[in-house]
Amino acid sequence: MQTTVLLQAQRTAVRIGAGKAAPELDGDAPELARLRAGDEAAFVALVGRHHAAMRRVARAYVPSDAVAEEVVQETWIAVLRGLKNFRGESSFRTWLFSILVNRARSVGSRERRTSPHEDPHAVDPTRFGADGMWSRPPERWDEAIDERLDAAALSGTLDAALADLPARQREVLVLRDVEDLTSAEVSDVLGISEGNQRVLLHRGRSRLRNELERRLAA
Q: Alpha-carbon Rg of the chain, whole angstroms?
């Protein structure tokens, strides 16, 4: 981690933001108050709490762990420099991930090509009969999964399946199901309606299940 750069940015943010604490009503409020008061240990605590999750989210946008780490470092610097502007209208976590996602998108668009189109069908329509019922129901792979794959292999399969999802579905799925953000938080982070978020989450989960089913059956 670029410790020197981050600490310099933190000291600048503290000098600017001291005495301007906002009424953040979330779990990070104590650390934010201490950070604004000049306590560098509060910054270390926030990094320890959120850094790993930020790296996982960034990795969903960029092609390598190294690039994901760079995105996270840039995000922390941006957070520290912009601390004086954070007024607590949303939770700190929502604000933090909003910055992260915007930066990861920008870097990801430069680092790799992504498909701009999404399949409108979450599930292959040929798997349904004329009556709307399953003609080929999903295989119940989840009940036997421990016997077919160990945890490490499953992790790699999940990562690969996630990488194959359309970008926006992957964004929602990672934030909701991996990082456990709420529906409202994800909507704020991505700048979408909660209805759109629900649709993307349903499609992403369905496509992920289909892809895992295909891979596990191979």
A: 20
Report the C-alpha gap between 129 and 135 in whole angstroms: 5
pTM: 0.66
Domain ranges of the chain: 3-111, 125-217
Coil vs helix vs strand at 134: strand
**130 phi and psi angles, rounded to 5 deg:** -65, -25
CB atoms within 10 A of CB 143: 8
Give per-residue pLDDT as tens, 91-135. 999 999 999 999 999 998 886 554 344 444 455 555 555 555 555
User: DSSP readout, 52-88?
Assistant: HHHHHHHHTTSSSHHHHHHHHHHHHHHHHHTGGG--S
Q: How far apart are CA 150 and CA 18, in angstroms?
A: 50
Measured CA distances, 196 to 26, 93, 129, 184, 190 (Å): 25, 21, 27, 11, 11
| Domain boundaries 125-217, CATH class | mainly alpha
